[in-house]
Amino acid sequence: MRFRCSGRMALSWVLPRVLPELARGLTRPGCGRALRRAASASASVAPDFNSFVTRTNTCGELRSAHVGQEVTLYGWIQYQRQGLFLVLRDFQGLIQVIIPQDEAHSHVKNLLCNAPVESVVRVTGIVSPRPPGQENPKMPTGDIEVKAETAEILNSCKKLPFEIKDFIKKSEALRMQYRYLDLRSFQLQYNLRLRSRIVMKMREYLCNLHGFVDVETPTLFKRTPGGAKEFLVPSREAGKFYSLPQSPQQFKQLLMVGGLDRYFQVARCYRDEGSRPDRQPEFTQIDIEMSFVDKAGIQKLVEGLLQYSWPEERGSISTPFPSMTYEEALAGYGTDKPDTRFGMKIVDIGDFVRRSDIRFVQHALSYPHGTVKAICIPQGVRYLKNKNLESLKESAKSQFNQEIVEIICRPDGSLKSLLTRFLGEKQQSQLVQALNMQADDVVLLAAGEEKQVVRSQHYDLVLNGNEIGGGSIRIHSAEQQRFVLEKVLKEDSEVLSHLLEALELGAPPHGGIALGLDRLISLIVGAPSIRDVIAFPKSFRGRDLMGNAPDYVTPEELKPYHIQVSWPLEEKEAKKN
Amino acid sequence: MRFRCSGRMALSWVLPRVLPELARGLTRPGCGRALRRAASASASVAPDFNSFVTRTNTCGELRSAHVGQEVTLYGWIQYQRQGLFLVLRDFQGLIQVIIPQDEAHSHVKNLLCNAPVESVVRVTGIVSPRPPGQENPKMPTGDIEVKAETAEILNSCKKLPFEIKDFIKKSEALRMQYRYLDLRSFQLQYNLRLRSRIVMKMREYLCNLHGFVDVETPTLFKRTPGGAKEFLVPSREAGKFYSLPQSPQQFKQLLMVGGLDRYFQVARCYRDEGSRPDRQPEFTQIDIEMSFVDKAGIQKLVEGLLQYSWPEERGSISTPFPSMTYEEALAGYGTDKPDTRFGMKIVDIGDFVRRSDIRFVQHALSYPHGTVKAICIPQGVRYLKNKNLESLKESAKSQFNQEIVEIICRPDGSLKSLLTRFLGEKQQSQLVQALNMQADDVVLLAAGEEKQVVRSQHYDLVLNGNEIGGGSIRIHSAEQQRFVLEKVLKEDSEVLSHLLEALELGAPPHGGIALGLDRLISLIVGAPSIRDVIAFPKSFRGRDLMGNAPDYVTPEELKPYHIQVSWPLEEKEAKKN
After folding, report:
1. Taking a C-beta distance cutoff of 8 angstroms, is the pair A108, A122 a contact?
2. Are A200 and B222 inside 8 Å of each other by CB?
3. How high is the ipTM of this complex?
4. Which one of A51, A223, A549 has the shortest CB-CB distance to B242?
5. pLDDT digits (tens, 9 = 90+) for A246-300
6. DSSP code for A104
7. What global pTM score does this model have?
8. Closest-CA residue in chain A for B89?
9. A to B CB pairs, distance under 8 Å
10. Run of H or E residues at B462
11. Which of A45, A51, A453, B162 is deepest in the core (most CB within 10 A)?
């Protein structure tokens, strides 16, 4: 069972503690200036999709205003009807093309009538209004049609492995095998084009408005301490391996030491997590680092970045984003990735039930961080059947070893619960008030001990309950960093000796953030999976189903890298036979 | 011996054959429109380097106009003199800071006098004119100084491993080990910031002006046929490997099949070439592909791209670039990467000496493609001593098994050469005319057979004798592609079956180009090596000397990937002991 949230976007910061600087940062001089600069830079021209080619227009852009013009179009045949007309498609949309029926154009008719669906054609013709009554208001180009004068089949399509219109219903594996066919869909075209536009706007904001430098950092590096999830790349030196880093963290900090005081990169990152749903072995992050900045500065930067690059058609976002501490997030939403559109906050009712004689409550409160919390579900009696309640209680028990007790508010305002007999009238009315209970509401109550967390100068950015970014003000003192490495993280600091030495040689204070681009875009377009915003994603087992990667290589190909395969026993046997 | 070329930039196309379309492409409708759009889009605002931080100005931007203002600066101590003043540095330049000498500021004086060179400091103070006579016209900020009011040492620098001013003289290995110190130099700051600016302009041109879509393609793919230079990445499936592709070639073609008709990517590419001078195992290319385009269209696109992104301070380039066929390049310059600034073209003099009785000439001309060629070096007697000529002849003999004979033009216009006695007076004057010989010129003559080349729809872009781009109009017919793979390239077409199948299912005609970004930027900034335009380059053996990559990993770390190291025998022995 999931509670539905409204469609709007809810961005929020989750911080280790309330920041007095936050408010200060928001009225800092220069904000007005930045906004004016943004406005001036975004007064852009629409791109010309027809430069460098003989295409005069895209199919989807034609309107009544084009009537009378001769146009040259390139596109795919969506369908063809009775030798009379066909619908041509490109990335911008569909256009109806009238097939000429007169003798002089028999060649054109012949070509267009015999071309299979999804063939690529060039059509030249005159834009005409559709005959009265034949307009199609559902089609953006529905007022017009193009009367074909000449045509050319540029590539004839062989029989498709399935009907293209049923494609969406096919298994995802098949769609990934024929990814290039799936890419022709309006949805994927939209997703990838929007992604490109958003990233471009981000670059404008960072480079052109705020003087950030786009620096490419290596992806062939070496294993970081604890980097168990890093892919290895064998080198030609026996026994030595590169590693594909999970982020450019070390490099961006070294750039700060190197005086490149505002860095960003749309960085390809790698993580070998085996099979995990909706993860990709390679992914992209907007990687940002700044010198001489504090948390408030980074937050302001990111708020401006998202506001500037947010696509108009997806509504607007307002800044500053609400900010809460990690403890507030856990207390109010029970997670460090709160969906702030979710109105039903958790309420601490420990004080109201402390003096009651309920055994599991008393047990929980006897611990140092014992607590009793409740959540009120408005009109809960409508949504929660008995079996829903039972299944909730069961999973609370099996997953968290927790008791859940419900309290129902009857139409007359009285409470129905196993607990009422342990609560006095005053306690009951205090509960009703604290939880703002109305008739037909259901309250779920649980008791237990809160885990404590002691944290660094860290901040997370959360969108609709998804963590889309995280960062911190870094440690720029070598001693502190060495202490954290050795005493807190229990790592061998020798592996990071180059970084520690760099911190000793004039490292400025610095901080930054990384935004998960794939997740961010998937949330903006409302895609169910990050695979829908990646041109060629891997399956959840890390396979490319189109090109069949990874694949076997010959022992000869492994020789220069001084490695050999250790076959598991059964495969070894199978290979022998 | 190298002939000096003028400083200007010479871009040219090298094509398989003369293109009648080229001239047509240049006057195509839409060019004027594109230029107007470009002009409108490039009317940009200067970036704000001080947003989000408490810095009011960068050190290098201060001028007389700032006199009287209180400024807050962040930077590195370049040097300090006698407790009286110090020079503070950031990426934009240097500023002189006056250390206060009065009792009230003793704390500030104390801080600034004791901070080691290259420490990071914050200084707040008033911009003042320098006392008359103490201005420094060599310094952009030389008319002013900042009288420090408050200061803070943000990070004290430990003793540097060498004097920073001598850094440039140190070995490159040491500079690469301390790359972050080298990055503080104005030269590397300039190179990396210019690179970022140029790439940003390219993106504006492609995305904002011409509707290209920035699509990220995977770098974990599978070995391409003949991809012997591809790094391997072991997967968790025994015996199966990903491969890091040398270019997104397959993906960009599949994007065209998928209807993303204008693609570009600033693409990370990988090539394992072992040790080769001035190559990097990972490098970057501007990768472009378009549907429905011809060679002329691609050339026009790239000419516009380079013109739009070319940095003003490096002069301007004019379009169209000169275009020559592959045969013309070889005939005129003896290379397919001609430096067109090099005025001394090769001249075919076969006809003038055909009837002479010179044995090695006759021998060469007896072959089907036999030829005699010469190059005239103006004022050659001044530059070429006997030992230069001898060494030229020796290398021609040892490297190409070629005889070289010189002809010297005496001050009176007569020719001095071993050959003159074989040539009649008419032949001699024909030679003088064909080679435009003047007094003191030296002609070098060689004879041999020309190699013949049978080529595709290919084009290369050459800058000052360096190939910086290459591309082609692709084969979009599955049959043709299969024929080329099997019959011409002798590859197993099965490995590319997904691409062949894609070509059968509605592939549009398409073509593209890839520009080598590292090389291009290094030529623009005049850097001797591509390492000077890469933030963290590898050594020529492919090592990261700062972080020490590649490095050994434990056998346990190899286990999930089902591989083990095959130690060469001697290392195995050494490991035992």
Report:
1. no
2. no
3. 0.88
4. A549
5. 999 999 999 999 999 999 999 999 999 876 778 899 999 999 999 999 999 999 9
6. G
7. 0.88
8. A259
9. 421
10. strand B458-463
11. A51
